[in-house]
Every structure is written in C-alpha cells, then in structure tokens.
Write a structure and sequence with these properties.
This protein is mainly beta. It contains two helices and eight strands; from the N terminus they run βββαβββαββ.
C-alpha cells in the first residue's frame, strides 16, 4: 500500500509529529490531492494551541492548500488528473440547514473544516470534496511597463 508523509497533531499543545500513513483513497464526491503548498494560517495555530474546541484527533492541520488532483472518487467527472486545485477551510457544508439554504454556508450548522475536523494539507496528500475545490491557474500575468521615450 502506498504511503505518504504527514505532520500530525496527536493532542493540543504538543508538537506536530512527522508520520508515515497510508495514502487515503477518495470516496464518492472526493478527490485525492497531491499537496504542492500549504500556508500556515492563524487558525492552524489555534488548533495546535488548543484554542478551538473538539478537533478531530489525531489531525493533520493546514487548510490553505494548493495541489494537483492525483485520484478521483468513483463519481467525480469534473476534474482531470493533474488539474491544479485549491482546498478551503470550509471543507463541506450540510446543504440543508437554514444557513446553507439561504446561501450562507459559512454559518452551516454541521460544517466540516479542513485541518480541524478533517485532515488538512500538512501532508504530501489530502482528500477534499470535489465540489469545494476551486480550479486554479498559476499562469504568469503579462508584464506591462512603458519605457520612457
């Protein structure tokens, strides 16, 4: 079974530990992402410092993720392998609570948060809901300058 490396928080207020873990397999509605970069946000530090209640433990922090699609869940058709995607903090929303039905998913009654209640991006691979992953483009913007006459 292929393995990945991940920085794991076993309990709040302890250092992250480098671990080898099996590469997760995407289920329906998910994509496996080969992580290229993951930022460090203050929210990640709140999780590690034990300032947010009830994290999934052990957990892989990190929610400012950019990577490439490495595998698709059985029903995912909206991405190609190798597509560059981002993974947000709000990993999933229930879609049925009053907040979700009114377009305010950020207030969802049953959210799933990347790097807090679901493993995040301080790893070589992570899973994400395909519906929450915006496709990204890293093409350089044309440089515009004018030279003095």
């Amino acid at each position: 079974m292929p393995t990945m490396r991940a920085m794991v928080l076993d309990r709040p207020k302890t250092p992250l530990v480098l671990r080898e873990r099996p590469v997760p397999q995407p289920a329906a509605g998910q994509v496996l992402i080969a992580v290229e970069a993951c930022g460090v946000c203050r929210t990640d530090l709140h999780v590690v410092d034990g300032e947010l209640p009830d994290p999934k433990l052990p957990v892989v922090p990190g929610h400012e993720i950019v990577g490439r699609v490495a595998a698709l869940g059985p029903d995912v058709r909206s991405f190609a392998l190798g597509a560059r995607v981002g993974v947000p903090w709000l990993g999933e929303a229930c879609g049925v609570c009053p907040y979700c039905r009114s377009g305010r998913e950020n207030l969802c009654d049953a959210p799933v948060f990347t790097g807090y209640t679901r493993d995040g991006g301080y790893a070589t691979h992570t899973l994400a809901a395909h519906s929450r992953c915006p496709k990204t483009s890293m093409r350089p913007k044309p440089r515009r300058c004018s030279a003095p006459a």
